[in-house]
Amino acid sequence: MELPASLELRREGGDGEVVVLTLARPGKRNALDDATIEALRRFFEEPPAGVKVVVLDAEGDHFSAGLDLAELTERDAVEGLHHSRMWHRAFERIESGRVPVISVLKGAVVGGGLELAAATHLRVAEESAFFALPEGQRGLFVGGGASVRVPRLIGVHRMVDLMLTGRVLTAAEGERLGLVDYRVTAGAGLAKALELAGRIASNSAVTNYAVLHALPRIAASAPEAGLLMESLMAAVAQSSSEAKERMADFLAGRATKVGEA
């Protein structure tokens, strides 16, 4: 697909099952304009054929400083509503799309940048990463999904703190609170994300789909409904030909055991 100049795409490895999608506005700390948001929606709505995992990277020293304030025009309430919903559609395509997405975080992960990161499935942060929701200090309220996704990661009370006080979290604090899944040294984020992507790409497609689509719904359900959905998904997964082949390899000693290299 055709991408704006703010996004760059490349395939990794000989099979091309992993792609790296890079935010490419380093001069603006990868601030997110409408063209970039719409391109993200289109990309994750229909990822390239054969792609099993996407790594979301960023050019320069920062992941994203959030909304490009140059686009914060005089909107009335209805226009503001539709603009927010445009962001929601794009990030929903990431969170509930066809492929797992790993974000590589460094420098500013602020405002809309944090909302984008929260929509990805795994977050790898370099030591330089810092997290904030400065909308409260600017007379604004979050509009890209933070009020739903960030509390799921860190709790409502911690998001209240971020918005009321303008608190900035370090990479270490982000890891401790649940914003960060993996914390690595400076410059090591992409390599770690690609390592994880390789593991994920080797999973059964049915299992990856279940993790992305069934697991969140199970977690949000009443226990009995969740357990029923779990049973149904387990039955579907284990009935696939790929699952049967993998179990046969394991029982025959042809597959590695947990903890083995």
Task: Give the helix/strand layout.
Elements: E1 7-12, E2 18-23, H1 34-45, E3 53-58, H2 77-95, E4 101-105, E5 108-110, H3 112-119, E6 122-126, E7 130-132, H4 146-154, H5 156-165, E8 169-170, H6 171-177, E9 182-184, H7 189-201, H8 205-219, H9 223-238, H10 241-251
Parallel strand pairs: 2-3, 3-4, 4-6, 5-7, 6-9
Antiparallel strand pairs: 1-2, 7-8
List keywords for this structure.
261 residues; 2-enoyl-CoA Hydratase, Chain A, domain 1; Lyase 2-enoyl-coa Hydratase, Chain  A, domain 2; six-stranded mixed β-sheet; three-stranded mixed β-sheet; 10 helices; globular
Task: Please report the total strand number as a whole number.
Answer: 9
* CATH fold label of the largest domain: 2-enoyl-CoA Hydratase, Chain A, domain 1
What is the terminal separation in angstroms?
38 Å
Q: Compute the average pLDDT.
A: 93
CATH class call of the largest domain: Alpha Beta
Number of helices: 10
CATH homologous superfamily (4th level) name of the largest domain:
2-enoyl-CoA Hydratase, Chain A, domain 1
Task: Report the sheet-strand fraction.
Answer: 5-15%
Low-confidence stretches at least 5 residues in length (pLDDT < 50)? none
The major sheet is characterized as: 6 strands, mixed
Instruction: Tell me which CATH architecture of the largest domain applies here.
Output: Alpha-Beta Complex
| Shape by Cα distribution | globular
Q: How would you write the strand order of the largest sheet?
A: 1-2-3-4-6-9
